[in-house]
Amino acid sequence: MNLSSAIECLLFVAGEPLNLQDMARALQCDEYTAEEALRELQLRLGESGSGLQVVSIAGGWQLATRMEYSETIGRLVTRNGGKLSHAALETLAIIAYRQPITIPEIEAVRGVSASGVVKSLQEKRLVAEVGRKQTIGRPILYATTQEFLHYFAISSLEELPVLENFEPEESDTAGGLLANAALAEASSETSQEAIYPDTP
Amino acid sequence: MLSVKTNPLKFHLPVFDGPLDLLLHLIRENKVDIYDIPIADITQQYLDFLSLMESLDLAIAGEYLVMAATLMEIKSRMLLPQAPSQNPEDEEEDPRQELVQRLLEYRKFQATVDTLEGWEEYRKLLYFRGALENPEDYFLPMEAGDISLNELQEALKRALLSAGVQEEKVTAVTPRRRVSLRMKMAELLRKVRSCPEGLPFDSMIEHPAYLYDIVLLFLALLELVRQGTLRAEQETTEDGIILHMREDAV
Questions:
Q1: DSSP character at residue A152
Q2: N or C: which end of chain B has fewer CB within 10 A?
């Protein structure tokens, strides 16, 4: 049995991102061997001029068409939905960096109401409710989803560009979820109170 | 400067995502330092923009007005002479500082939007297997009129069938009966009378039963017991209720 061909089959059948662990389990080998075979498959697809490629996306690997053929495919199927609006992207960026985050916190950054945008992002499954903040009113906390990673063709949140002067807000999470390693590492130094001018 | 000032006949109105976006635009256009905003100038331009929107009959969102008030407050505070500080350590706060912090914070996120937009565009060039799992992702376009309503109905039926959804045959349409408490009492009494050995209460409930009917039946029972016409027996709380006629009330 050719391991790289076997991985090709797995990716073809799965139709969703597969991680090395999944592949190794199916192949009954260790993850290192699976990764070797995956690289071999990538190389083979590239060299043989295949229309397919293996991309790293949403925490796993998935078969995708090569971008040069997008126009051809576009003549067969039509993609649903257009691009996200500027406001939606902005809101999504705030959620991605500050998750988990409540709607009032998003509004504090953007200076405009955010509930409508968040709702439509939720309908697109790019963000989801992940719990409630343990403050007055127990507002809902939002975080990005796997679909968010898939939508932007990235493998993990760590691929997001570093915000300059990044200062994470300490938020006590209800579920304590999705604490992004990259975000958690950054240290908080300045407290917000320091910048409020004293009232005369 | 907004383009309206340079050429009042032909101008385009930029669309802003809120007051912070507008302010950042003004700061960029005027090429001023964000840490040292000429607040009087910027406030004036901000208000000009609002009145321009007003003259075009565009609704101004409340957030823009809040920001206008904030700007004017900062402006007036900057005009006030600085009070001599008792404590030399106590450095006078710049009234603009809070606003600057908000603008900087907002600008950081705005800067990432381009990156996300680029990723989004790139991702749209890739097609994945698993399109069936995400049916919203693609669809096969069809010419209008290619398919008749009947064919669509048939297709839906097939899809439901393969998904294991059983279509329930409509056998009859029964309008809700309007039963009064009095009628229910009479019905109950008639049934009990025909069963000298006692009538189990449960047997009175016809399935499928409406909640309304069950409640009405129970009310009828209570009323008949209260009147002393019926006797209700229950051995233990687990057992069903058995109804008898009161011997003296036949």
A1: T
A2: C
Q: Where are the domains of chain B?
A: 3-81+92-122, 181-249
On chain B, the residues whose CB falls within 8 A of the CB of A55 are: 126
> What CATH number does the domain located at A3-76 have?
1.10.10.10
Cα–Cα distance for residue pair B102/B99, rounded to 1 Å: 5
> Chain B partners of A165 at a C-beta cutoff of 8 Å?
104, 108
ipTM of predicted assembly, 2 dp: 0.75
Q: What is the pLDDT of residues A85-131, one digit of tens each?
A: 999 999 999 999 999 999 999 999 998 889 999 999 998 889 999 99
A156 and A61 in contact (C-beta within 8 Å)?
Answer: no
Q: What is the distance between the alpha carbons of residues B74 and B65, in angstroms, rounded to a whole number? A: 14
Domain A86-194 sits in CATH at 1.10.10.10
d(CA A13, CA A22): 13
Nearest CA in chain B to A164: B108
CATH 1.10.10.10 boundaries in chain A: 3-76, 86-194
CATH: 3.40.50.150, 1.20.1250.20, 3.40.605.10, 1.10.10.580. Which one for B181-249?
Answer: 1.10.10.580
Given a cut of 60, whether residue B70 has pLDDT beyond it is yes
DSSP state letter for B106: H
Residues 6+ apart with CB under 8 A from B56: B13
